[in-house]
Design goal:
By secondary structure, the protein is mainly α. The chain has eight helices and no strands. Helix 1 (15-38) packs antiparallel against helix 2 (71-86) and helix 1 (15-38) runs parallel beside helix 3. Keywords: Membrane, Transmembrane, Transmembrane helix.
């Protein structure tokens, strides 16, 4: 059973904590509203139609089918709940929230910037932004794995939200990179579109295994990562079974990768739990 590290004990809330809480709350609201408007949810140009359709569901063999993007509603809800919870007076001195809140805000602003880059028809810029976004999420992931839980509610809300966010962006980064390469007309680079697509979905599955192995003692964090990655990979597979870009080889590889991604963190967490009880 995990015991709380004395260093993680909640101390006294300071004025800096209050500034952080208010800034993150207001910044989160601005970032979420901006990203929602920029994505075309309230009219305007949808992301899938921007940049000549470079990021549409049929742009490349590793583009997830359109329903996959509904996961953003879950992620945005989690981020909104996180912003409210971290702003509660009693959470001001929570050491986990102190360590992670600024990073969460940075990730939301980067996501809004990514939408702006796509709407400006800068596919190359979108790749740069999403890679930085993934780096920020990976930093949060490592911090959350290393820091013991504090209060149950904020810890679980943080882990689940960051987990879903990290898992989805991990898959989206691969898809975005493939979209840029297709947009830049670099050619098939030896393996062909099908070969490279199989490599990319396989890499996503291996990344999910790595997430699960490193964070095996944080199931509330790594299981959502696996579920989000499995979700994205599943919709890549479904997208290749119908429509204008059918590819049975990529579909099979994507479905297999989705199963691995979803199950690997669960297996790693169960293994760690059994080891801890021996």
């Amino acid at each position: 059973m995990e015991t709380m590290n004395p260093a993680a004990a909640v101390g006294r809330t300071t004025s800096r904590d209050r500034v952080r809480q208010v800034t993150v709350l207001v910044g989160a609201a601005v970032a979420i509203v901006g990203a929602t408007i920029g994505s075309g949810a309230f009219g305007g140009q949808p992301v899938a139609e921007a940049a000549g359709g470079a990021l549409s569901a049929t742009a490349t063999p590793v583009a997830p089918d359109s329903p996959a993007f509904s996961i953003w509603s879950v992620i945005y809800t989690g981020l909104a709940v996180f912003a409210v919870v971290q702003a509660l007076p009693r959470q001001g001195a929570d050491p986990r929230l102190r360590a992670i809140s600024w990073w969460v805000l940075a990730s939301m602003l980067l996501n809004a910037l990514w939408i702006g880059a796509v709407q400006a028809d800068s596919v190359a810029g979108s790749v740069v932004v999403i890679v930085v976004l993934l780096a920020v999420l990976a930093t949060m992931y490592v911090k959350l794995v290393r820091m013991p839980h504090t209060a149950t509610a904020p810890s679980v809300i943080t882990d689940v939200t960051v987990g879903l966010y990290t898992g989805w962006v991990s898959v989206a980064t691969l898809a975005n990179t493939a979209a840029f390469l297709a947009y830049a007309e670099v050619g098939e680079l030896g393996l062909g579109a099908t070969g490279w697509s199989v490599v990319l979905v396989s890499a996503a599955a291996l990344l999910a295994v790595a997430y699960g192995a490193y964070g095996r003692r944080r199931p509330a964090l790594v299981i959502p990562i696996g579920l989000a990655m499995g979700w994205g990979l599943m919709w890549i597979g479904l997208g290749r079974t119908n429509g204008p870009l059918v590819d049975e080889t990529v579909a099979t590889a994507a479905f297999a990768a989705a199963v691995v991604a979803a199950l690997a963190p669960v297996i790693a967490s169960l293994t760690a739990r059994r080891s801890a009880t021996r």
